[in-house]
Amino acid sequence: MPSAAPRLLVDSLSIVLIDLLLAGDNALVIALAVRDLPARQRRIGSALGAAAAVVLRVIITIAAAQLLNVEFVKLAGGAFVIWIAVKVLADASSEPAQAGTPGHLLKAVWFIVVADITMSTDNVLAVAGAARGNMALIVFGLAVSIPFVVLSSNLLVALMNRYPAVVYVGAGILGKVGAEMVLTDPVVERLAHPSNEFLYSAEAVTAAAILIIGLLRNRSARGAPDGA
Question: Of 4, 23, 80, 225, which is the most exposed, with the fewest CB atoms less than 10 Å away?
Answer without folding.
Answer: 225
